[in-house]
Amino acid sequence: MGETRDIPPDAQIHNSVIKRMKSCPEYRPGNLIVGGGGRGVRKAPARYKTGEWVSHMWPGDHVKETFVRKNPPGDGCERHSSA
Q1: Is the Cα dihedral 33, 39, 42, 43 positive or negative?
Q2: Is residue 11, in this structure, part of any structural domain at all?
Q3: Residue 79 belongs to some domain of the structure
Q4: Averaged over 31-38, what is the pLDDT?
Q5: DSSP 5-71
Q6: Is the pLDDT of residue 11 over 50?
C-alpha cells in the first residue's frame, strides 16, 4: 500500500546506498536516515543530513563494503517524526 519497509537498526547497508545519499540531495530515505524502522517517514528532513554511518565489513572494497548506523535507535538517540 505504498508504506516504506522497515529497516532494522543493525541492518548492513551497501556502500552504494551511502554514496547515493551523499551525492544526490533528493535521495533521502527516511527509514535509513531517521531510523526507527521506517514507519511514517518517507523522506528525511534535511536537518538529519545523511545520518551517521560506520564501515562494518570489507572496508574500502567498492563491491562488498557495507555500513551500519553509528548510533542505532535505542542507544539514547531519539527518533523524531516529520510533520
Answers
A1: negative
A2: no
A3: no
A4: 76
A5: PPB-TT--EEHHHHHHHHH-TT--BHHHHT-TBTTT-SB--GGGTT--EEEEESTT-TTT-EEEESS
A6: yes
Cell 517524526, residue located: 81
The answer to whether residue 39 is domain-embedded is: yes
pTM for the model: 0.72
Domain that holds residue 29: 24-69
Position of cell 556502500?
A: 15
User: What's the domain count of the chain?
Assistant: 1
> What is the pLDDT, as a whole number, of residue 73?
54
Is residue 19 included in any domain, yes or no? no
Calculate the CA 9 to chain-centre distance: 9
Q: How confident is the model at residue 58 (pLDDT cuts 50, 70, 90)?
A: very high
